[in-house]
Structure formats: structure tokens, C-alpha cells
């Protein structure tokens, strides 16, 4: 083992994988991140679901799921190309502090919430085929057993709809049983298409809260326990085992898919709660948004790295070729152990972002190819850099 790796190994020996826990606070704000996206010029090159620049990829249409470190690695790996494009476009390089970087990544992460707009014609057909029309009226067409759905246009978000479908599920089940109406289930884009149809057919002008995002992950965690969800469901392994782990499921579900899954599983959930004498909880739309935010955040916040592995990443990616550590001499860049402001993963990412735009002082013949970093490696590297600031 080379001397530098031996020194690094001793430095992080006491840290261990336990540092992978509790890396994040719940203070990252997707709405603030959307403002960063616009104010710092990201929107000049990148669109979100078709709105924005076309120089770079549409960030609302890239593959999901995405964790913090998926996004962090992507930002690092694309930095040279982004820098070149910004120079070509005459766009000044944006500087981001730790809070802005955390908010921006939270915004990009929550783009997973959204689905494209549904198909109105398909939704019209489904409204009849699923027998919704027997009980509900939209735009003057349909039954009057259940509430008129015109007002849903005002609040036509999957979160609002999921809350209403959950709260009224037992009553709807009783009415359907009495009228011998088979209970419908929803798959793929069907619920999304129904929402599009209701929005198009309803005469009500949209206004008021949409309850789309962001929910408050901290409050959602408390509600997950208070509403007794945790007695049957776990979130990343913490909680009951009667039902599926909802954090594992939510990371691949959009809001509409989440609403569909809740509706489809309602009979089984109601039966399980009855057998355990658990009262059926009512959920307001903002509470539903908070619970969903918590389930998303568990996967987003939980993927910590191992500082010991981060040592190897730093060496393999060439970080230690230029950066000194613990008083080493003869390195052209600063001492990593003396770096300031690396107290959170977002702060580390902000520092890496700024660093990625610093001109390489070496002659062209000496420059190595840009070292790309995989998400797991980024998690380990961040854990290692943070460990340097912790008292040993």
C-alpha cells in the first residue's frame, strides 16, 4: 500500500460505514430549487417536460428513479460538456452555495412526481367502462349517487384525488356492493387519462391549491406513525411487515401511479385494518402530500456512502494526484483535510461543482481524461470528504 493510502486509511478507520446514516436534513426545498433552476440559468439550456431550453436534455424526461447521488454523479460527469456549452452560448457559470445546491437537487429529484398529461379521449371511454358514470357526474353527464366530479378540475392533482379516493373508499365500496357494480382497478396510465378527461369536461375554472408538491418529509414521517401506517408497512426496512415496504415502491412510482396503487389495494388494506382493530385514518390532501414526500425522501436521503471506500475512489479518480492530505507537500492543489464548508453532501456537491469549472493548469499533453464517477462512488467519495472534517 502506498504511503498516501496508508495515511488515508488510518484517517478514516474510526469513521466506518456508520457515517452513511443521517447524512441529510429535511430542509432541502424543491420549490426553492425550482427558483434556483430559473435564477441561475439552468432553464436556458434545460427544459422540464418541454418547458425551457433545448441545448441540454429535458430533465423531466430522463430515466427514473434518481437519488441524490444519481443526480450528483450526473452533474459531475457532464460538467465539462456543460462548461463548454455555456462558453459557446455566452452564459456565465453559475455559482451555487450549499443551500442552493441542496434545493436544486431536491427539485430535480421531485420531477419524478410528474406524469405527462393524460389522454382525454381515453379518459372519456374509461369513465364509462369503469362504471364511474353510474354514480358520478362530469360536465352534466352521469349519475347522482356520488358527488359531482366537476369540482375535481379545481384540485385535479393525483395527491388530492388519492386522498379523496382513500377517505371515501369504504362508502364507495358499500355502494358498489349494493348495486352489484364490480370494483374497478387502474393500471398504467388509466387514472392519468381519467384526470385529463375530468379536467377537460368540467366547466369549473381551475383555481385554489393543487396539492402537487412539495410535501413536508418531516411531517410525513410523523404522520406515517400517527396514522398507524407503520403498523403494517415499513419504509426502507423500518416498520411493519404485513404490507410491502412503501419506500421501495414509491421510488419508482409517479404520483398518479401512487394514487392508482392506493385505490387498487384499498380492499386488502381495509380488511387488514379491520382484523387488527385499526380505525381507518382520514387523510387531508396536504397530509397525503407529506406522507408521499416522506416515502420518497427515505430513498433519496438514505443512500449514504462508506468513507473507507471513498479513499479508494479519491485515489482511482486522480483526486490525490493534485490534492494534498494531512500536511503533504508538493501537491499543486489544496489540502483536502483543510477544506472548509463540507458539512453536508449538498455542500460537498457545491464544492465539486465549483471545482469542476476551475481551469486545469497542466499542459494539454499532461491532462488525463475527465474522471467520471458512478452514483455509488459519489456516495463513498462524499462520505470520505465529510469524514475529513470530523474529529477522530
Structure characteristics:
about 400 residues, mainly alpha, two-stranded antiparallel ribbon
Distance between the termini: 22 Å
Number of domains: 2
Helix content: 40-55%
Report the structural category.
mainly alpha
Which strand order spans the largest sheet, edge to edge or round the barrel?
Answer: 1-2
Sequence of secondary-structure elements: HHHEEHHHHHEEHHHHEEHHHHHHH
The outline comes out as elongated
Number of strands: 6
Strand content: under 5%
Largest sheet: 2 strands, antiparallel
Q: Segments where pLDDT lies below 50 for 5+ residues?
A: 1-26
Strand-helix topology:
Blueprint: H1 3-12, H2 30-39, H3 42-45, E1 47-48, E2 51-52, H4 68-77, H5 79-89, H6 98-110, H7 120-129, H8 132-135, E3 137-138, E4 141-142, H9 158-167, H10 169-178, H11 190-201, H12 217-226, E5 234-235, E6 238-239, H13 246-250, H14 255-275, H15 285-302, H16 307-316, H17 319-322, H18 345-356, H19 375-387
Antiparallel strand pairs: 1-2, 3-4, 5-6
